[in-house]
Amino acid sequence: MTFRPLLRSALLAGALACAAPAMANDSSAELAAGGLVLTRTAAVAMRSEDLYISPTAVRVRYVFENTSGKDVTLRVAFPMPDIGGDGFFMGDVSIPVDDPANILGFSTKVDGKPVKAQVEQKAFAGGVDRTGWLVANRIPLAVHQDAATKAMEALPPAKLKEAQALGLYDEDQGPIWVLKTTYHWSQTFPAGKPIVVEHAYTPSVGATVATSVGSAYGAETEAKYCVDPGMVAAVKRAGGEDGAFIEKWIDYVLVTGGNWSEPIGDFRLVVDKGAPRNLVSFCADGVKKIGPTQFEVRRKNWRPEKDLQILLLERREP
Length: 318
Prior knowledge:
mainly beta; eight-stranded mixed β-sheet; 6 helices; 20 strands; 36% strand
């Protein structure tokens, strides 16, 4: 069975320029990533998902069970967020790992053993796959790295003009194709036998130098992240928008969990704000504080209908 990368780019550089506070020129956008993806199947159920999210690490532990009565082999995928495109500026986007094919440092294990995943990378311009052109002209596909810019600028004038006509290059911006990267592997799910799949990566964390929470223009941010009055009051007591906090954002794609045969049997989310002095907010019912920095959400027989957006206010050192 072939996979399809259902996770699409959540690069919010343009959107955040409108939604973020006035200091957006001093901000970076986050790239939303999430969990495992495969084509819809009636054979495999996700019995549990244990998800941990912090500013420095995302870890997920799944238990899957094949309920079909016979062994099933499926292609499982982890799509990286799309990067690049017209209007993409590296200084505005948080890319945590300097790896042309693995910008989040993704790794995975099955029943405790590391999985060697395959990597598929494709470059698109104007919705057209231009990977072949770039490869033929020895242009690195990693649009966000200097090597791609240098290789493009080293092309003969006629080739550079062709790249511009194909929508791959802009004189002011440099390379502007969209890079789509997907990690994938073939996984056998034995009949009736649970298997444990774990993956980990470094999240892309957007940030800005101050916060709009508690300010005259903070209503949109407060609504987006379900900020409660207590958090607003805490920000105002600390000095409000005058630089007491650095505002950070982490996005996580949850809806891909709906591709399995049944709702997630037992879902657990832990959000870690990193330090007791920090503040955190996200939209969820039944949030329970379980430690000085950690907050837990649990669900039974749950099928996620929307993705997770986390607001983290990191207090500046005195």
